[in-house]
Write a structure and sequence with these properties.
The protein folds into two domains: about 120 residues, Periplasmic binding protein-like II (D-Maltodextrin-Binding Protein, domain 2, 3-Layer(aba) Sandwich), CATH 3.40.190.10; about 110 residues, Periplasmic binding protein-like II (D-Maltodextrin-Binding Protein, domain 2), CATH 3.40.190.10. It has nine helices and twelve strands. The strands form three sheets. It has a five-stranded mixed sheet with strand order 2-1-3-12-4, sandwiched between helices. The chain has a five-stranded mixed sheet with strand order 9-6-10-5-11. The longest helix is centred in the first third of the chain and has 27 residues. The N and C termini lie far apart (about 75 Å).
Length: about 270
């Protein structure tokens, strides 16, 4: 009986060691990966500028598209994705805190800036007194729109205003007496046809087939609003994270951006 027990214990030990070794190898050597991105320019960026470089490193890459800003992080946290690309720093940190997730950025990528568009005026100088401008009705994007107007010297802000939380009440001087019309961000591309000016976030502009370079003024984008490749914090030092970073930092990636993503604002590390 004692001999039988010892043999069984030895067999179980070998099995456990083999299982642990196999699990570690599969985690370390994982080559079939899934990257999530919102439909449009960022799924295109993964497909055209990131996926080819990873494939050269031996990965098999599936690109999964999403139509909202909730599921890509949920899928990442649940392990259905290995990384995603769609969000800026403020959104990532807020979402992670609200949902009890641990998310970290791998690297910042070129991002479509918000712009001021018009079908009635050809330049900022042409804007008439009392013109109506549609702006996003959410505080984060509204602050971005007001900051563009500051850069365009169409408004000034009260001293001490935080540029990340600007609202209409923070305006000191409204040079052209602009009339602000807050509406849902997704409707801003269509608003170009019905109002004098419209502040359109880059992703919505591209989804509506607008040319970023047609904007009267493009955003001087703060780093917090640039999109980044994001992974679960536990994986941010993995070999995959290092390989994604290497691909994005390569000349081939920037060449695709210059050719296929005109008007996208590059992060500081690329300049």
């Amino acid at each position: 009986m004692k001999k039988w027990f010892l043999l069984l214990a030895a067999a179980l030990t070998v099995s456990l060691l083999a299982a642990c070794g196999g699990e570690e190898a599969s985690s370390e050597d994982k080559k079939e990966i899934t990257i999530g991105a919102t439909s449009g320019p960022y799924s295109d960026m993964v497909t055209k500028a990131i996926k080819p470089g990873l494939e050269e490193k031996g990965y098999t890459v599936e690109v999964k598209e999403f139509s909202d800003y909730i599921q890509p992080n949920n899928a990442l946290a649940q392990g259905d994705l290995d990384a995603n690309l769609f969000q800026h720093k403020i959104y990532m940190e807020t979402f992670a805190e609200q949902h009890g997730m641990e998310l970290s950025e791998v690297i910042v990528v070129p991002t479509a800036p918000m712009g001021i568009y018009s079908e009635k005026f050809d330049s900022l100088e042409d804007i008439k007194e009392g013109s109506a401008i549609a702006i996003p009705n959410d505080p984060t994007n509204a602050a971005r729109a007001f900051q563009i107007l500051v850069d365009a010297e169409l408004i000034t802000l009260k001293e001490g205003t935080d540029p990340l939380t600007v609202s209409e009440k923070d305006i000191d001087k409204n040079v052209k007496n602009l009339q602000f019309k807050p509406i849902e961000a997704a409707q801003l591309p269509r608003a170009v046809e019905s109002v004098d000016l419209s502040a359109v976030p880059g992703n919505y502009a591209l989804a509506a087939k607008m040319d970023l370079l047609d904007a009267l003024q493009l955003e001087n984008m703060p780093d917090q609003y640039r999109n980044r490749v994001v992974m679960n914090t536990k994986d941010v030092d993995s070999q995959l994270a290092k390989d994604i970073k290497a691909v994005v930092e390569a000349d081939e990636f920037e060449n695709v951006i210059d050719e296929e993503f005109k008007g996208f604002e590059k992060p500081e590390w690329m300049e």
